[in-house]
Amino acid sequence: MNRILVSLVALLLAAPLFAKQPVMPAAATAAPAFSTINGVPLRVNVGADNSYQIFNSNTPSGSLGQIYPTNAAQTADMGWFVRVGTTLYAPRFGEHPGGTATGSLGATTPYFEASLTPTNGAGTSASPYSVTVVANLGQSGLVATKTITYVNGENYFSERFRVRNTGGNTEQVTIFLGSDIYLANSDSGVPFREPTSGSPGGRTCAGVTPEYTILHIPLTPANRYTAVGYSSVWSQIGGGQLDNTVGTGCIDNGAALQWNFEVAPGGSATVLSATSFGAVPPITQFNITDVNPAQV
């Protein structure tokens, strides 16, 4: 290979010509409120619209968000979704100040944001940091309550997402957790599924050291999953079902989990999950087959 070709290859690797760009919000758009868990090594921004941004001080640049857009200082392209019938309730990605690349979701309906707590707790195992978000799903009678907890020193945070039916009809509810991941300092990674727990995510491309992984961990067994290109993740969520596929190659990747429930009037559906950044955490090293959180 001659010197000119080597130089061109190096330039292409350093600065891709066709790198995606986020779609920015209208200037007059009001951004969702958020609370920040100032933990170590993870700093987690929790949006009132059920979105996130995460910063990891253990990466070479702790100021880069681990969810795309990486320069989004508030919240970014990760969140919880609930599908009821043909309606997909989703975060207000299009109103995030840092922009979004979630156009493949198609039509969505924003949550009605009811409440967002400040960060509570001391960051210890006895008193974890916690933030709670409550949102109504339009006029459906469904109410989503999410609590995120984090203990200093861990490379993952945990979540409890509950949908309660205050209406008079039994509802078929599909819950998704999905993200466009940014692996340490790169928007490219190899799709990956941790084999013991079945956690989908991504891992740094070949030759990148140290190895770095982002995983969505189904502490409640998931019905379906995907770990593929980011645009496909969003289109699958928008279409109502994940494809149980792990992609190949070094690509601009994302991941998602799916849970299916029937929720009777007065009943609820609850899922437990975690999201990790860096080494694969010990909580993945058991076979998650039957976890049934209290439906209260």
Primary descriptors:
296 residues, Beta-galactosidase, Chain A, domain 5, ten-stranded mixed β-sheet, eight-stranded antiparallel β-sheet, globular
What would your notes on this structure say?
The protein is mainly β and 296 residues long. It has one domain: Beta-galactosidase, Chain A, domain 5. The chain has helices spanning 3-14, 230-239; strands spanning 34-38, 42-47, 51-56, 76-84, 87-90, 109-110, 112-116, 129-136, 142-150, 156-165, 171-180, 190-194, 199-203, 213-217, 224-229, 245-246, 253-263, 268-278. Strands 1, 2, 3, 4, 5, 6, 11, 15, 16 and 17 form a ten-stranded mixed sheet that branches. Helix 2 (230-239) links the parallel strand 15 (224-229) and strand 16 (245-246). The model is unreliable at 1-18 (pLDDT under 50).
CATH classification class:
Mainly Beta
Q: Poorly predicted ranges (pLDDT <50, ≥5 residues)?
A: 1-18
What is the count of β-strands? 18
CATH superfamily: Glycoside hydrolase, family 65, N-terminal domain
The structural domain count equals: 1
Described by the principal axes of the CA atoms, the overall outline is: globular
| Helical/strand content category | mainly beta
